[in-house]
Write a structure and sequence with these properties.
Blueprint: E1 3-11, E2 21-25, E3 29-36, H1 41-56, H2 62-82, E4 90-91, E5 93-101, E6 104-112, E7 116-120, E8 125-127, H3 134-140, H4 146-150, E9 170-175, E10 182-186, H5 188-191, H6 196-205, H7 209-222, E11 229-238, E12 262-266, H8 338-352, H9 354-361, E13 365-370, E14 373-378, E15 390-398, H10 404-412, E16 414-416, H11 419-432, H12 443-450
Antiparallel strand pairs: 1-11, 2-3, 3-4, 3-5, 5-6, 6-9, 7-8, 7-10, 9-12, 10-11, 13-14, 13-16, 14-15
Bound molecules: manganese (II) ion (MN).
Length: about 475
Amino acid sequence: MTGLSVGAATDVGRVRESNQDSMLMLEDLVAVADGMGGHNGGEVASSISIEVLELAQRFVSSEELVDRIQEANRAVVDRAEDDPSLLGMGTTLVVLTLVVVDGVDRIVVANVGDSRCYLHDGAKLVQITKDHSVVQTLVDSGRITAAEAEHHPQRNILTRALGIDGRVMADTWELRPVVGDRYLLCSDGLYGEVSDLEITDVLRSEPDVEQAASELVRMANEAGGHDNITVVVVDVVDGEPPPSDGSGRQLDATLGESWAIRAVSEMTEEPDPTDAGRLEEQPADGGETPSEPDDGTLSDGGEVDEPARESFRPTVGSRPPVASAETRGETRGSPGFRTVLFVVVVLGVLLGVVGVVFVSARSTYYVGFDGSEVAIFRGRPGGILWMDPTVEESTGIERDEVPTSYLDELEGGKEFGSFAEAEEYVERISSESGEFSARETEEDSVVGATTTTTATASTTEAGTEPDGP
Ligand code: MN
């Protein structure tokens, strides 16, 4: 019988006004969710995902956990559809729980986004989860180094999150519960401030789980506390004995395949036909994996004496689960879907063409609401990209002065490739404000608006006085 001891701490940090992280701390089920989205969207998204998880209490398999994560995703999406002010909200989710596989206890870790789970085995710290972020993709493709990723300006841009699309792909790992192992779940507010070395020191030296969690939060605050910080520390206090000679597990700080019993990216819903063949799928019965190795990441098997172990199928390079604009064509043109489509297509662009996005995201501006006032932000609307857009310029235009035809766009955040274009757009709003022009925006322009070209609406300046005679 496996026993876990759990301690946790969370803090708003020293910069943010609210704590949009949420966490769950039950006996055998812990989770951290880091919400994003304007207004209080982030808080709502993260707490919904935690609530849905909490209702389940217990899971019999990693598949059931993934199903639940799908439900959580759906709950966030539904809520955003009910409340336009929450549109674009999303959340990460990292979960650790116990399941029984063939009569044996297993620890299951599941992840979506860039909150993380680490394992400290008394000597070494390894990162179990892999961030679903643009910089991780860049690292994987060899375009930047891990060290560069740490300070990369786009390190907060996610490629997966709950609440963005009707389905989400979660990565899961199954591990043996070894007495003395210590797991750490955290939001990026911790690892963005505190180095792996410092984290290791605390996990090694502080025996009490509560104290260890509090100490890590304190250190993140001391280092600046630029983001909300959430830390959950889990000790395996009862379980399998540690391997006496250390040969049972090869903790490898770079990739988890040698210690994970099973690691797989799972999606419970049917993939789009367009995705078929690109998603690596694990045999559902948990049986022997067909003999051919996927690639070089499979260890030769000599190192690890783990008969139950299945192959690790890296999901790097598999197609992201979010449908592209083309596959979502059925929604195109339906009135009322404009903003949703906007979000979906932007995400599709993001996931599909990371390189392009990377380039374009360096100098992206958008116009949206800062409270009740229209403002030009640097960055991207918070629902998709996690880079804390900053207000570049306040315009003094209040929400109730904005022509209704602009409201949808502004709620979602209207993006531009340059500050000048954003300013031009604001000027257009400004010149039309008060007129409440009934100008219809063509549906096609929605699609146009989602690319980086800003071709939307006509240059018809309905409210301005004509120049000339
Ligand atoms: Mn965060």
